[in-house]
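[audit] Reproducing an earlier prediction to check determinism. Same input, same settings, fresh worker. If the tokens differ from the archived copy the diff job will pick it up downstream; this log only records the rerun itself.
[audit] input (202 residues):
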Amino acid sequence: MSLLPPEFYRRSNPVQIARELLGKHVYSCLEGQLTGGRIVETEAYSHEGDDSMQLHLKRRGTHGQALHEPGGRAYLYQVYNRHTLFNISTNLASKPDTVLIRAIEPLVGLEIMAARRGHLAPDSPKLTTGPGLLAQALGITPALSGTNLQGPVLWLEDAGEIINEADILASPRVGLAYAGETAAALPWRFRLRGSKWTSPAR
């Protein structure tokens, strides 16, 4: 497998990047514990034509700074004072876009992830299904926001897998009623058809 280079993230179309991240592998290595898996669900967010992005652009400080740097950094923040969401900054520093990693198929460090998730069974679909759950399984917290995705803490790799268009399910993103009908209806959520690790349809 090969490390995804910075150029992969710095392209101008977050929707294309979100689709192409399906089948890629993401890893964390924290305190010597390696965990990771295959990406099976993503969502794209754009600074143009997407009102839901405005909330992200208002974030300042350490967490929001990752959006204002060239693509290829972890953009991490917490919702409901509980769940960390693992986003990847994309595009240029002056044109901030992002991709949310919503679910992965766990492949590496299953026992570690299971312990982080409250000692679930390593083959439980609840292990990494949903953005907050996968971040917990990978040990990711907002303290890592801004981390360069070239390793050694967080990184993504290309396993050479080719995902056919027929195997990708596109649908509206989750929980965006606050952003208005136009943003809520954009079909920018992508899932691998038939994967038990994707979160349910909404």
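[audit] rerun output stored. Observation attached for the diff report: The chain has a mean pLDDT of 91.
[audit] end
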